[in-house]
Write a structure and sequence with these properties.
Helix content is 19%, strand content 33%. It is an alpha/beta fold. The protein folds into 2 domains: 5-66, 2,3-Dihydroxybiphenyl 1,2-Dioxygenase, domain 1, CATH 3.10.180; 79-139, 2-Layer Sandwich (Signal recognition particle alu RNA binding heterodimer, srp9/1). The strands form 2 sheets. It has a 4-stranded mixed beta sheet. Strand 7 (111-115) and strand 8 form a beta hairpin. The chain is globular and about 50 Å long. The protein starts with a strand and ends in a 20-residue tail after the last strand. The mean pLDDT is 88.
C-alpha cells in the first residue's frame, strides 16, 4: 500500500490556486476536466515533491471543483493538511503579507495553522529543530479556529 493523495472540495478554482500555489507554494502537477461527471480535478504537490509527483505519484492534494454549485460546510471536520517548511517565521510572514490569517501563530517556533479559502485547516511545521521563539509570534494570540 502507498499513500496517493488527499482530496478537498473547492468552491472557486482561481481563489484556491491563488492560495495553494501563489501563497502556500504548492505546484500544480496535473489537471483533468470530466465533462460527463461535471467536475475538474487539480493535483498539487509540495515544490520539493513536484517532479516526483509527476513521475511516480508522490503524495499530492487533489482539489475537486464540482461544476454545479454546492455549499460545503465544516472544513475542520476534515482534519488538516500538513507541510514542513524551511523557516516557519518566514513562511508565516509571507502568508500574512499576502493577506492570509495566521490562525495559530508559531509561538513555539515549530507549528502554525492557517485556513484555505474553503476553510480547510493547513498545519505548517518547521523542518528540523524548532526555531527559537521570537516576536511578534510568541506574543500573538490565536485567531478563529485552527
Amino acid at each position: 500500500m502507498r499513500y496517493l493523495h488527499t482530496m478537498v472540495r473547492i468552491r472557486d478554482i482561481e481563489e484556491s490556486l491563488d492560495f495553494y500555489c501563489k501563497k502556500l507554494g504548492l505546484v500544480e502537477t496535473r489537471r483533468f476536466d470530466n465533462e460527463k461527471g461535471r467536475y475538474t480535478l487539480i493535483f498539487l504537490a509540495a515544490s520539493r515533491d513536484a517532479d516526483r509527483a509527476r513521475a511516480e505519484r508522490a503524495p499530492e492534494v487533489e482539489l475537486t471543483f464540482n461544476w454545479d454549485p454546492e455549499a460545503y460546510k465544516g472544513g475542520r471536520n476534515f482534519g488538516h493538511l500538513a507541510y514542513k517548511v524551511d523557516n516557519i517565521y518566514d513562511t508565516c510572514r509571507k502568508l500574512m503579507d499576502a493577506g492570509v490569517t495566521i490562525n495559530r501563530p508559531p509561538r513555539d517556533g515549530n507549528m502554525a495553522f492557517v485556513r484555505s479559502p474553503d476553510n480547510i485547516s493547513i498545519e505548517l511545521l518547521q523542518e528540523g529543530e524548532p526555531l527559537e521563539p521570537a516576536e511578534p509570534w510568541k506574543s500573538m494570540p490565536n485567531t478563529g479556529e485552527w
